């Protein structure tokens, strides 16, 4: 594989611990390792700012990192300044392709396409119907459909949503997130009494609903614990709900943890309560560690990863009692959990890392 040009992944803040940052770093590292860093070619990250001293996920040292602002800077009032700064940075580092790892960033990259001579790839990590936190995301999606050089979705279902609703003038390509290779080979912890969930503590991830589910599960199983791995703005609200439910000794907010693999290896199951997703990396990670999964069947994502009744359970989104029932059944049936773990990797061929890196390689070379 040989790289062609200078590729930059454009992020809000690449030092964050979210799934978007995880998969973007995984992809960039793979490109760097397989030939995209040599004379005349480069892989880099451009962030609006970096809030943490170092990234949560390890970045290949050959990959440069740049920031639009030297300090944390929020607000639409900085829009024109941000566009100006981004244009200057792109030209200074001779960047040929900007891969916007959040579609909302198209609002900054698309205006500089012509003046900076850069191609823009819009990478959709949610789905066409969702506009988390930013109502004008709808506008940037329509803008990308007209002006981007390509749009990448995580599922074929979302690709079809773009084609049917946005009528894009550019190619729309479905490239899923890759499933990581775990070494040493994981062994399912059949005797574990630990449930884990992971993600940013935000409305999207539905941890408020998770507390409601846990309140129906944990009191009846005093020897079990449930760990939530991640940090975010919903922490104060979640802390209050946990205290009110009286389950603070069993449902524990672990915050931003450095040793995620240790939690996966020691867990009995993984639970996802998201209101919406694109293609959740945390479910791919859970499957890589052979974990049974109980997940809300939210639009796009979980149904692509979990085969209901084979390696996990899919529950109607928002069905608190239904999810609690499925978790209780798994807790009470060790053999059931073991069967799910044994079939964890079924249907995972489409998430093969090398296959997905190859798709990105062809797209970035203009072969897709």
UniProtKB/TrEMBL annotation:
Keywords: Glycosyltransferase, Transferase
Transmembrane domains' residue ranges: none
GO MF annotations in UniProt: glycosyltransferase activity
Residue intervals of the Glycosyl transferase family domain: 190-343
Gene3D superfamilies: Glycogen Phosphorylase B
UniProt KW Heme keyword: no
Record-linked CDD domains: GT4_AmsD-like
Domain Glycosyltransferase subfamily 4-like N-terminal: 18-179
Alphabetical list of InterPro entries matching this protein: Glyco_trans_1, Glyco_trans_4-like_N
Keyword Glycosyltransferase belongs to the record: yes
Stated name of the protein: Glycosyltransferase, group 1 family protein
